[in-house]
Design a protein that fits this description.
The protein is of the alpha+beta class. Helix content is about 15%, strand content about 30%. The chain is built from 4 helices and 17 strands. The strands form 4 sheets. Strands 10, 11, 14, 15, 16 and 17 form a 6-stranded antiparallel β-sheet that branches. The longest helix is centred in the middle third of the chain and has 18 residues. The mean pLDDT is about 90.
């Protein structure tokens, strides 16, 4: 396991000892590239903490720990957990392979990954140990009471004692009863000669539980509750942009019982676009709003302009 500088410092000590208790034998500290760097003083303190924990708990049955998982959840070869953005719109770190793209089976990558994460969430809720593996042809799996294959065709295959059951969707995930946060998005634009600057304003109201979503540490190492994640798709299927604010400092304003979150984007190509705004509360209730809009070239001024968008939930 590895610790990066952008991990909450208060959490890193527990993550190290937890990984040790689960059987980890290799520990790394990232030592370069801006906020990914763990300062020297921190990784010395972390290493000493881990050494003391290991001295207090020297006996580990690594063979038993390797066999601790009851369920194997298999992902199609080539898929992954989301590269550096961890599922925020792209899988492989390139916009061309965003979650709205369709795989060879005619299913969006978003559906396949959603099925995968829901099966993980189900295990976490029930306190069941699991392994995550690629479904590599010919791989022999043994010792699991259940094997779950998340398939590219959108189905989920569950194998128990050699008997396979095919499901059209992942198993039900129990979430707390209550009301998810409300979310509304408006848009405005400012035209320039070769590009158009668009400002999206989200109005979010917490309901049953608080909302928390972070982009990670900003350029000064401070964590902020960004409240909303912004993604821009288009004009082509392969065009994607995960919108991040300058210096990773989200523009969030608390107004009465609501929160306003602002995002900006500069568009230099005409075409049809889709803006996705999403939020989640601490109980796992999500709200997603899509805004479809078009950017056209004004025949008189030759400048780009924003067509009136229609809201889509």
């Amino acid at each position: 396991m590895s610790i990066y500088g952008a991990v909450q410092p208060a959490d890193t000590f527990w993550w190290l000892t937890h990984a040790y208790d689960l059987g980890a034998t290799r520990f790394h500290f990232y030592d370069s590239y801006q906020l990914a760097c763990v300062p020297y003083g921190e990784y010395i303190a972390l290493a000493r903490h881990l050494r003391n924990h290991a001295r207090s708990n020297p006996v580990r049955d690594l063979d038993r720990l390797r066999r601790a998982a009851e369920i194997a959840i298999l992902l199609p070869p080539g898929y992954n957990l989301g590269h550096v953005f961890l599922g925020k719109g792209i899988l492989w770190g390139v916009g061309e392979l965003n979650l709205e793209r369709v795989n060879p089976a005619g299913v969006k990558y978003r559906v396949v990954m959603s099925n995968f994460f829901q099966e993980i969430e189900r295990c976490l809720q029930q306190g069941i140990a699991f392994d995550l593996l690629w479904d590599i042809p010919g791989m022999q799996l043994s010792g699991y009471r259940e094997i779950v294959r998340v398939r590219e065709d959108g189905k989920v295959e569950v194998e128990v004692d050699g008997k396979r059951t095919f499901l059209s969707s992942p198993r039900l995930v129990r979430r707390a009863k209550g009301v998810p946060p409300s979310l509304d998005v408006t848009m405005a634009s400012k035209s320039e000669s070769a590009a158009i600057d668009i400002t999206a304003l989200a109005r979010m109201v917490e309901k049953s539980s608080p909302v928390y979503y972070t982009l990670g540490a900003d350029t000064e190492g401070v964590y902020h509750n960004a409240k909303v994640a912004w993604e821009l798709y288009g004009p082509r299927d392969e065009d994607y942009l995960f919108l991040r604010p300058d210096n990773l400092k989200p523009r969030v304003r608390e107004i009465a019982k609501a929160t306003e979150i602002e995002a900006t984007m500069r568009i230099s190509r005409p075409g049809n676009y889709r803006l996705r705004a999403s939020t989640v509360d601490t109980a796992g209730r999500t709200t997603v709003v899509w805004r479809r809009f078009s950017v056209r070239t004004d025949p008189n001024t030759k400048r780009l302009r924003l067509d009136t968008p229609a809201q889509v939930h």
